[in-house]
Structures are given as C-alpha cells and as structure tokens.
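Suppose a colleague, Dr. K., hands you the sequence of a protein chain of 358 amino acids and asks what its three-dimensional shape might be. Before reaching for any lab equipment, you can write down a predicted structure in token form. Begin with the sequence itself:
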Amino acid sequence: MVDSLRKPEFTEIRPGVKAPAQDTILTPRFYTTDFDEMAKMDISVNEDELQAILEEFRADYNRHHFVRDAEFDQSWEHIDGDTRRLFVEFLERSCTAEFSGFLLYKELGRRIKDSSPVLAECFNLMSRDEARHAGFLNKAMSDFNLQLDLGFLTKSKKYTFFKPKFIFYATYLSEKIGYWRYIKIYRHLESHPENRIYPIFRFFENWCQDENRHGDFFSALMKSQPQILNDWRARLWCRFFLLSVFATMYLNDLQRHDFYAAIGLDARTYDIEVIRETNATAARVFPVLLNVDHPEFFKALDTSAAANDKIAAIGRSDQPAPVKLLRKLPYIATIGWQMVRLYFMKPLDATVLQAAVR
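The predicted structure, expressed as tokens, is then:
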C-alpha cells in the first residue's frame, strides 16, 4: 500500500514530525544537576587519567564515521507492520537518550569552564559525540517518514534533578551498557548479515567505542572523588543504580521482543548477556555488584516483564483512566516486590572479583 494511504502509526505534532513518546518510568529522561557542586570538585588525585582521556576525546577518532552512504538511498517500505513500528520506537528511544546526554554534557561544559577546564573540555567533547549520534539516529527516522523536533523536545521534556554523584553512577552505567548493547548487535549481524535489515547497524562497532570512552571518563571522574565510592552509602547506591539500569533495559526489550527477532536475536538471551557483561565491567569502579548468576535473579526479572506486559495491555484498552489504574495496581505491586527482592539479594564484593580475575 502506498504511504499516503497507510493508517498513521504515530501521533505527529506536524506532518513528518513525531510527537515525543509519553514519559513513563521506563522512557529515557533528561537530567540536570548541581552545577555549583560540580564546579568545586577537586580532581587532582586522578587528573593524569582524566587528562589522558581528554587526549583521546581530542583525537576524535569517529569524526569521519557518521556519514550516510549509498546504501541508505533506497525505499524502506518493505519494513512494515509491527517491525516498522518497533524499529521507529528503537530509533526514537536511542535518539532521545543520546540527545539527553548532549544537553547535559553541553550544559556542564558551559557551567564549569572557568573552574575546571579539563572537565569542561571533556564534557564539551562528549556532547559533540552525543550530538553526532542523535543527529544520525534522527536522520535514520526520516527514512521512515518521521523525525523528532529536538528543539521542541528540549523545551517540552521534563528534567530530572540528580546530585552529581548520582549523575556519575547513572551515566557511567548508561554509557557502559550502551557499549555492550551496540557491540553485541554488531557482532551478531557481522556473523549473520542476512539479518541486517537496515544499514545503521554497520556503524555500531565504531559507535560503541564512543560509548566506551565516555564510560571510562566517568569511571576516572568517580575515582577522583573516592568519597562517593568507598562508604556504605556508595554500596547501597551502586546496587540501586545497577538494578535500575538492568531492570529498565530488560522490561523495555522484552516488551519489544519482536524487534530483536527481526534482526535474528532472542531479546531475553541478548539482555542476559548484556547485563552480565555490564555487571562485570562495573567491577572496575563500583565497590559491589549484583549477583546476576543467582538462580532467582532473572526469574524475578521475568516475573516483572510479564507484569509489565499486562500493564501495557491495560494501557491500550478503551477503559476509563481510573479503571485502568485500578487494574494496573496488582501488576505494579508485583514489579515493586520483585525489585525489592533483587535489591536485598546479597551483592558481590567487586574487589574480591577483581582480585580473582587478576
């Protein structure tokens, strides 16, 4: 069927411009922080490592990477139905997350340039990377006759305030889990090119190296502030952020398992691999890890994912909002209970695991 006759799959704020996805606990967020506190940080105990990372950022290894080639110049009408919808959602979520990083890093670079020039330049160069990623993803959406208005998104999206240490925990994990997500997809499609339904996946190998370098920056930054890693509060917060990032990815991906099936991946297997790799990577900086190999860990996430599917199905129904809320409550309680169980599951000591690896 020609595009002009296709029933619209998404709400548009104007022709060809997709309305932003409704904010939920699982959607990408925009962040702000205490810029004055950031400006006062003393990074001297780890400034050499931060300076070395800055030199890598300056090298800009991917400055010529994000260039669309001839493979993009074709119709993508053959990607249709649920696969098309889920792929556009994947592009939108990825674009929103990258653009969120751009906004935060750009503002940090601007606000701390006088007090901490090394950190300010690092943030500015990371914002450069995130802008490239977001622009590349948004252009990919245009191949499906939609784009995001990033200016509108800047003004309309709610911003979540996190203290600097929480920004460090969250962005470190976001960048590292992004690395493992991109490289796992790239390696899978390198072995199974018949499943590479769209050329953007060819760019994921270099792309994930940006994510990895950004994660290394936040690792070095946290090491420069040892007080946010070496007390009992840090242990509790690290567990919280590990669980939050893992559970958010797991529930989102299992809800969109058909997208992963379209590129030849089982969403659950893929997420388990990504979670295990990210958890092990976090041992390089976090004092504790989650025991993801505990037999109850992924069982609890599966129970939560099933409850999340029920919540989504209720949300799509035509019932009045109060009725929907009442029907959702038992499933919300189920997810909450499973998260409590996982949070209080005995964690692993990262230093012991690192010593075993060495």
